[in-house]
Design goal:
With about 325 residues, the protein is of the alpha/beta class. The chain has ten helices and 13 strands. The strands form three sheets. A five-stranded mixed beta sheet has the order 2-1-3-10-4, sandwiched between helices. The longest helix is centred in the last third of the chain and has 18 residues. The relative contact order is 0.14.
Length: about 325
């Protein structure tokens, strides 16, 4: 911390700022909380807005620069959409808090409120995600799947300008920006499994910064921690990222962690699914993620992912 001020590093997009302000409000609600300053940091993902994410080399498009500032000591806290955070954290960084999860589902938006099934044949659907492309291709093989980058308001503008019949965004982001009325349909996780950790805000700090860790510990949500532990262990074992058509969702119910995950070919022709349950400890949830990953790999997930990477010339992790 700089003197008595805690500095939060964040991207400057409308959604990222909402998330950082939310973390600031939670911290301020604690007795004796320090002064809190937001520090805007531009990332590689912000610089390359017109390039499809799967064409951008490397990892951590939206987090690397913020984590570098954290390690350099220019900020004390990093606030991320947890789905953007690599499963292998930079040495010296700790995932100190996983906030209560918002709606993890994907949402379809269309100008006239049409659902996915109601869109015309050959409909133009915008998304920046290979995962969404794959599951959309499986559900609507007739659709034209087009790239869509930019922040949420920009994507909505392009939809309303007629570039697309529909677009797909994370329901959580729309909820946080007060845009749920724009949603035409929530896509069922059984057919459209979300990105790993979608809907969870992750808060990081330096692993040895005991003062900041003390303030962040009360923000950690037990259910989100279990879900994120299972999903991120799965992703790490599969060696996936935003360049892989993998979706997963863990839930906690009746004293058990339930995890279901799918890997889908980009043309939607082949889809592999595995599921399992575990006890409600972080260690057990991580082991669950690894078991489900092993089942997917046994079904041929590695070969499917390798084939998709080869076809797209995507860099392996």
């Amino acid at each position: 911390m700089s003197a008595a001020t805690l500095r939060i590093g964040t991207r400057a997009s409308q959604l990222a700022l909402w998330q950082a302000e939310h973390v600031r409000a939670l911290l301020r609600a604690q007795a004796g909380a320090p002064a809190i300053e937001l520090v805007h940091i531009r990332t590689q993902g912000d610089e390359q807005r017109e390039v499809p994410l799967w064409q951008v080399g490397g990892r951590a498009f939206f987090t690397r620069e913020i984590d570098a500032a954290l390690l350099a000591g220019t900020v004390d806290v990093a606030v991320h959409s947890l789905k953007d955070l690599p499963t292998q954290l930079e040495p010296g960084i700790a995932l100190a808090a996983t906030l209560a999860r918002a709606d993890p589902r994907d949402a379809l938006l269309s100008p006239d409120g049409a659902t996915l099934a109601q869109l015309p044949r050959g409909a133009r659907i915008g998304t920046s995600s290979l995962r969404r492309r794959a599951f959309l291709a499986r559900a609507r093989p007739d659709a034209q799947l087009l790239d869509l980058r930019g922040n949420v308001p920009t994507r909505l503008e392009r939809l309303l300008a007629g570039h697309y019949h529909a677009i797909v965004l994370a329901a959580a982001g729309l909820e946080r920006l007060g845009l749920t009325a724009k949603i035409s349909e929530h896509l069922a996780p059984e057919r459209f499994p979300p990105a790993v950790s979608q809907g969870i805000i992750g808060v990081c700090t330096r692993r040895d910064d005991t003062e900041v860790l003390k303030w962040l510990a009360p923000l950690d949500d037990a259910g989100s921690r279990l879900a994120a532990s299972a999903e991120r262990a799965l992703l790490k074992r599969i060696e996936g990222g935003c360049q892989v058509p993998l979706g997963a969702l863990a839930t906690v119910d009746h004293g058990r962690v339930h995890l279901e995950a799918s890997v889908c070919a980009l043309d939607g022709a082949r889809c592999l699914t595995a599921r399992g349950t575990s006890d409600t400890t972080v260690t057990a949830a991580q082991a669950l993620g690894e078991r489900v990953a092993e089942e997917l790999l046994a079904q041929g997930a590695a070969a499917l992912i390798a084939a998709e990477r080869s076809a797209l010339a995507v860099e392996a992790p």
